[in-house]
Amino acid sequence: MYKSRSLKEVETRYSATEREALAVRWACRKLRKYLLGAPKFRIVTDHRPLTYMFHKLCGELPPRIENFVMDVQEFEYEIVYRPGKTCIADYMSRHHVDRAGSNRVFEIEAAAESVVESGYCHALNEQGTVTVEDIRAEGERCEVYQRLVKAIKSGISDNDEDLKPYMVPEIKHDLNVVNGVVCRGSRVVVPIALQKRVVELSHRAHQGISKAKHFLRTFCWFPGMDKAVENQVRGCLPCQAVQPPNKNQPVKPSELPIGPWQYVEMDFQGPYPNDEYIFIMIDRYSRWPEMAWFGNAFNANTTIAAMEKIFTSKGVPAVCQSDNGSPFQSKRWNSLPKAVDIAITTLLRNGPEQTEQLSDLIGV
Fold it and tell me: Under a CB-based contact definition with an 8 Å cutoff, are residues 120 and 31 in contact?
């Protein structure tokens, strides 16, 4: 399928980048009934700046180009650069057509396209799309939205609790009012009554949290939008039914030490009914446990004292393994390896790497 047209007299005075952006906008609007609602399609251009402008990778755009970019925001597309020397210049797409000699044909074609597109747009609206007119009408009925409009125009919010999410420094400077609709930059601020409907529409294709967030961030904004999307997707029964369960990585078996009391694991168990704790050290080689009772207050000093008492009878092991509990994080504990020539290793508390010997002994 080929679509082309000649530039209007005003358009001939556009810059090269503006003409290229106009071509993208015109082609998307011309083929709207084929592209709207379709999976992501590709726009190929030989003008590299457009790849940054239409992907919003640059800051403020010139007003005319910004209008072109906003006009195609309803489409799901990607734009890629291809050097002009690789494009084939065919006669049918490049030859100038004199419209004066075929006005009747173009009038019939325009009328037919208008009928088809109006019917297609009506079908889309039946599916529950939200239009700018819907946002404007609901905004006029929403008291908070109207107070927001007045606050933006006057620059005074009077410490309104309902407007605090809109008036944080990184947001309020981007807010403006266009024809009664509040916008944050190029995105529309959605009234409270339409927020749930907009979130539901973003998840209509059931593509997950990231896709729904990306879709909404392109067109609109409201406080708590990301959280609302997460709740919508996580509460979607069809999505949860097909989501693969999270599986822990298999735990690698630990190597057996070469002899007894070389590798020792330690942890606390409790509290018991009398508010006491048990300090446990277990030899990985022989699985022999050593225990010490603690009161309801235990810290690094009491832990080290218990260890020294056990070391007196059993000797100093080469490695001691613990979790990241509070007794194993103090400065006194960190100085222990140098004092007694011992290596200290740590694991996640109650994580999958916790050793099976200690788990079996303390009943985890």
Answer: no
- pLDDT number for residue 266: 85
Cβ neighbors of 132 (< 8 A, separation 6 or more) are 181, 188
Query: Structure tokens of 10?
Result: 């005003």
Q: What are the tens digits of pLDDT across the range 36-77? A: 777 788 999 998 888 888 876 555 778 888 888 888 887 888
CATH, domain 104-119+128-241, list 3.90.180.10, 2.60.40.10, 3.40.50.300, 1.10.340.70: 1.10.340.70
Q: Quick check: 254 and 262 in contact, CB under 8 A?
A: no
* Greatest mean pLDDT range, 93-102, 128-137, 343-352: 128-137
Is residue 160 packed enough to be buried (19+ CB in 10 Å), middle (13-18) or exposed (0-12)? Answer: middle
**263-362 architecture in CATH?**
2-Layer Sandwich (3.30)
Is residue 65 within 8 A of residue 17, CB to CB? The reply is yes
**Would you say residue 93 has pLDDT above 80?**
no
- As a whole-number percent, the residues of the chain with pLDDT over 70 amount to 77
DSSP string, 102-166: GHHHHHHHHHHHHHHHHHHHHHHHHTT---HHHHHHHHHH-HHHHHHHHHHHHS--TT-GGGGGG
Cα dihedral 42, 48, 50, 52 in deg (nearest 10): 100
Contact (CB, 8 A) for 199 and 229: yes
Report d(CA 112, CA 161) in Å as an integer.
52
Please state the separation of Cα 329 from the chain's center in Å: 34
The answer to whether the beta carbons of residues 232 and 208 sit under 8 Å apart is no
- Whether residue 271 has a cis bond before it, omega within 30° of 0: yes
Model confidence pLDDT, tens digit, residues 159-169 = 788 888 898 88
